[in-house]
Amino acid sequence: MAARGACAALVMIFLLFVLISHTSNKSISSDSVVETRERMSNGLDEEGQGDAPVENNKNAGISDDTVSSLLERIKVLEDELSSMRTRMDDAENREGNNGIPDEMAVPLPTTKSFPSVRYRNEETRKRVLITGGAGFVGSHLVDKLMLDGHEIIALDNYFTGRKKNIEHWIGHPNFEMVHHDVVNPYFVEVDQIYHLASPASPPHYMYNPVKTIKTNTLGTINMLGLAKRVKATVLLASTSEVYGDPEVHPQPETYWGHVNTIGPRACYDEGKRVAESLMVAYNKQENVKIRIARIFNTFGPRMHMNDGRVVSNFIIQVLQDKPITIYGNGTQTRSFQYVTDLVDGLIALMNSNYSLPVNIGNPEEHTIGEFATIIRDLVPGSTSEIVNQESQQDDPQQRRPDIRRAAEQIQWRPQVLMKDGLLKTIEYFRAEIDRNKRGGKPPPEPVRHGGLESRR
Ligand SMILES: NC(=O)c1ccc[n+]([C@@H]2O[C@H](COP(=O)([O-])OP(=O)(O)OC[C@H]3O[C@@H](n4cnc5c(N)ncnc54)[C@H](O)[C@@H]3O)[C@@H](O)[C@H]2O)c1
């Protein structure tokens, strides 16, 4: 209001100044100017003859040109004053924008509602760093730890992860998102580090094998260095791939594995093996508290649609009524765990005091052919036929975790029935396919990457 008054006053002073100066210079009375303006605005001449233009101003004794230019000037100033008033009125009416014009104002975020999280006091609340926090497994771990009342920093370079996976926590006081690549050092005060950053499916880790090796070696060194500095416990998301194409079945943690060091999967398999060695070295040499989870095949919502794994490929094919492709005769076996079981296992391991590798997987073993049938039967009306194609090089014939160590050391065993997990995953993929359709995206294609989909 004060600004508006000041402006109006300024304009009026200016008008007065113009009038006074012209009055004194040209001996023109203000009355005559007003009168003349009225005449002009009424479109009358001196004799009141209607539309004829005013030709001169005999009363004022000044030329018509001067009067016209004065009137024009007054008109311009009046217009400016009026538009200024309008703008100020608008600004006052937009109190929410603090006077910023609408087109420039960024809408303030509306209050976001979050799932209710457990209250923890300083003593029991942990600050937790999760690398790869925007990925499939990482995002479920974020959810679980957030709900449990901890402070979470989700670090990711978004190579395969998506902000969408954790966006529901953005803005929560306990949550922080960090865009960072673990290949570069990162410094933060934390109590625990879940080190999950690494591409996990064959098409992703084979896309840039050198980067995969760097992520698993340099990235792990960086996280171990951080753990050493801040005295945090660090958990490595290792993999059943460290067993390679196993000659021992089921695979216990004591089995050293059977890995091809120069095969297409070596960047990942050997990368994780070196990561495990680094963990043990930092533990022995630097007293860093370490946990090593050897994760077996995992499935669930937020899996990548095109990651070439058995579960995602089969579900996508069945939901689109396309043939289910099996590489080989389908007798090779796999065991799949549901993602919430894995997350429970990771947390139990982190909070134990066990430093040796622990298998986290579901020992329920099925042939790939059985999986195809199970998934098809869970989608009513599906007519997908099963098609066998040429088998793949290095495809392991059997994969099943021996989970006795997990049961003994961290009292963990999987709880979710495969069928229940599959139903939730099918619903997730169905919604994703619909979302893509609405967004005009082409339907997802199952990925064949050297046929490795039958291995995961
Ligand atoms: N899902 C499984 O079946 C499975 C099996 C065995 C092991 N694992 C391990 O679990 C972890 C998580 O796997 P996932 O299935 O969630 O895979 P994912 O690809 O969904 O998640 C990995 C995350 O790490 C991020 N990332 C990759 N490189 C990075 C880098 N250099 N810096 C920062 N972030 C980076 C990705 O963007 C992604 O968000 C991986 O370490 C994987 O090796 C998973």
Automatic annotation (TrEMBL):
Its main location: cytoplasm. Its EC number is 4.1.1.35. Residues 1-25 form the signal peptide. Its cofactor is NAD(+). Residues 67-94 form a coiled coil. It is an enzyme of class 4 (lyase). One of its GO terms (cellular component) is cytoplasm. Residues 446-456 have a biased composition (Basic and acidic residues). Pathway: Nucleotide-sugar biosynthesis; UDP-alpha-D-xylose biosynthesis; UDP-alpha-D-xylose from UDP-alpha-D-glucuronate: step 1/1. GO terms for biological process: D-xylose metabolic process; egg-laying behavior; embryo development ending in birth or egg hatching; morphogenesis of an epithelium; nematode pharynx development; UDP-D-xylose biosynthetic process; vulval development. It is found in: Cytoplasm; Golgi apparatus, Golgi stack membrane. Residues 28-62, 433-456 are annotated as: Disordered. Residues 129-422 form the NAD(P)-binding domain. InterPro entries: NAD(P)-bd_dom, NAD(P)-bd_dom_sf, UXS-like. Keywords: Coiled coil, Cytoplasm, Decarboxylase, Golgi apparatus, Lyase, Membrane, NAD, Signal, Signal-anchor, Transmembrane, Transmembrane helix. GO terms for molecular function: NAD+ binding; UDP-glucuronate decarboxylase activity. It catalyses: UDP-alpha-D-glucuronate + H(+) = UDP-alpha-D-xylose + CO2. It is a single-pass type II membrane protein. Belongs to the NAD(P)-dependent epimerase/dehydratase family. UDP-glucuronic acid decarboxylase subfamily. This is UDP-glucuronate decarboxylase. The lineage of its organism: Eukaryota, Metazoa, Ecdysozoa, Nematoda, Chromadorea.
